[in-house]
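Build the 3D complex.
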Amino acid sequence: MIFNFILAIWMTAGIVIAFAMPPAKNLAIPPIMYFHVPMAVATSIGFLIAAWYGGAWLTTRRVKHDILSYSFAEAGAVCGVIATITGSIWARINWGLYWSWDPQQVGIVATLLTYGALFSLRTATEDEDKQRNLWAVYAIFGAVAAIFWLFIYRHLPSVRLNTAHPSGTLTGSAPIFRIALWFNIIGYTMLLVKLAQLRARLETASQHLKDLSWI
Amino acid sequence: MDLANLQDNLPVLIVVLLTWGGVFLYLLRVERLARELERRVGDLTAESAEGK
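Done.
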C-alpha cells in the first residue's frame, strides 16, 4: 500500500518535472526523453534481475525464484518495447526519421528478438522442472546478450562511427538534467518492480491452483 | 525548471497525466484481482487439507 502511494506520487512528479525542463543545447530533448531513457534503463535492470533469479533458482531450487526470474524478464521486455517505440519518436524529432537502422536501434531489436525466442523456448518442453532449469540458463544467456546488444555493440570500432544515438548527453550535462533523469529512472524502475511483482503473484497463484487440481 | 515550458506543454501534460492515472488504476485493479485469487487459493488449500 505504501509502495503504491510512493509510486503514484513519484511517477506523477517525474512526469511534471519532465514537462518543466528547459530545452537543452545541441539536441532536441522533448519530455518523451524522460520517458524513453528510464524505460531503456528499466529494460536492462529487468533482464539483469531475471538473470539473478535464474541463478538463484539453479542454486536454491525454490520455485519462487524461477517465477520471479520469468516475471522480471517479461516486465523488462514490455519496457523494452515501450523504449523502442518512444525512442523512434525521439529519433523522428532529432533526425527526421522514425527508423534508420542505427546501431542502437539494431541493438534493442536484437535484444527483444532474443528474449522473444527465449520465451518461446521455455514452453518447448512439457516437464516443469526441465522448463525451469532451461529458463534459468536462458535468463542468464539473455542478460549477457542484452549487455552486448545494448551497451557494447554500438561501441565496437566498426559500428561506432555509424551511430547517431547520443551517449552520455544528460549524464555529462547540467545538474538539473541529471536530477530529472535519475528521478525518472528511479520512478520507472519502481514501476518495473511493481509489474514484475504482480506478474509473479498471478503466476504463483496459478501454480497453486494447478497443484490443487492434482490432489 | 522552466514554468513557461510547462505552460506551453500543458495540454500534452494533462493527457499524459490522465494516461498515467488510467494505467495506475488498472494496476491497482490487477493487484486486487491477484489478492482475491490468492485468498481463493488459500481457501481451496485449507479445504483440501481438511478433506484428506
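Chain A has seven helices and no strands.
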